[in-house]
C-alpha cells in the first residue's frame, strides 16, 4: 500500500492542529483583558476600602439610601479554583449586598447577591450580566442579562431592565463601581485603594450558599 494514500489525511490532521492552536492563541489574546482585570482586583483580596458617591444623577425625590452612610467594599472571598471574587459592599449598617465577579468562557460575569439580615436571599438577587467585549484591564462593562430582565419585570422594576453596570480598577489607586441607564441615570462610587481600612463584619448570609 502506497504511503501517498495517507498524505492527504496527514495534511488534514496537521492543518486541523494548526487551526486549533491558532484558535487557542486567539482566545487567549481575547481573554487577556478580562484575566488582567480579575487579577488586579484579586490583588487586594483580604482588604477593605472606604468609598464615596461621586455621581448620582438624577437625584431622587425620596431619601437616598446612600446619603450620609459610610461605604466600604471588602475584597473578601477569592476562589482561585472557581475564578471568582466575592466583594461585600457595606452601606452603613446594611450588610445585604455582595458583588460576585467571576470568569466565564468568554469574559467576566457580575452578579449582585442580596440577602436579608437572617441570611435568606432577597426576592431580587443574583442579577447582573456578562461583560461586553472587548473591555480592558482597567474597565469592564456588564449589560443586564435576560434572566435579570425577567426578574426585574416580575418585581415591577421596569427602570432596571436597561441597566449596565461597570467596574474600573487602577491598581493601588482606586476602584469604581458604576450603574448607568439610557436617559441619563448614572450612579458611581469611587473607593480609595491606597488606604485600606479596618475590616467590616461579614455580609449577611456569608455562610449560606447563594440562591443561583
UniProtKB/TrEMBL annotation:
Entry's PROSITE patterns?
PROKAR_LIPOPROTEIN
- Which protein is depicted? Secreted protein
Q: Which organism is it from?
A: Stenotrophomonas aracearum
Amino acid at each position: 500500500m502506497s504511503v501517498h494514500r495517507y498524505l492527504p489525511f496527514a495534511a488534514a490532521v496537521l492543518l486541523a492542529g494548526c487551526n486549533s492552536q491558532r484558535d487557542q492563541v486567539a482566545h487567549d489574546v481575547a481573554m487577556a483583558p478580562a484575566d488582567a482585570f480579575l487579577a488586579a482586583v484579586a490583588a487586594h483580596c483580604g482588604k477593605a476600602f472606604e468609598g464615596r458617591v461621586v455621581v448620582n444623577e438624577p437625584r431622587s425625590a425620596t431619601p437616598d439610601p446612600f446619603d450620609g452612610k459610610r461605604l466600604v467594599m471588602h475584597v473578601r472571598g477569592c476562589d482561585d479554583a472557581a475564578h471568582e471574587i466575592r466583594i461585600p459592599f457595606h452601606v452603613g449598617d446594611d450588610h445585604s449586598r455582595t458583588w460576585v465577579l467571576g470568569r466565564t468562557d468568554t469574559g467576566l460575569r457580575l452578579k449582585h447577591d442580596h440577602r436579608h439580615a437572617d441570611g435568606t436571599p432577597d426576592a431580587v438577587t443574583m442579577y447582573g450580566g456578562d461583560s461586553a467585549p472587548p473591555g480592558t484591564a482597567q474597565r469592564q462593562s456588564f449589560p443586564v442579562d435576560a434572566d435579570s430582565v425577567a426578574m426585574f419585570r416580575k418585581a415591577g422594576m421596569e427602570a432596571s431592565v436597561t441597566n449596565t453596570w461597570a467596574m474600573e480598577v487602577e491598581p493601588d489607586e482606586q476602584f469604581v463601581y458604576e450603574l448607568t441607564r439610557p436617559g441619563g441615570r448614572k450612579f458611581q462610587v469611587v473607593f480609595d485603594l491606597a488606604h485600606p481600612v479596618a475590616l467590616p463584619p461579614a455580609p449577611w448570609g456569608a455562610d449560606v450558599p447563594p440562591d443561583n
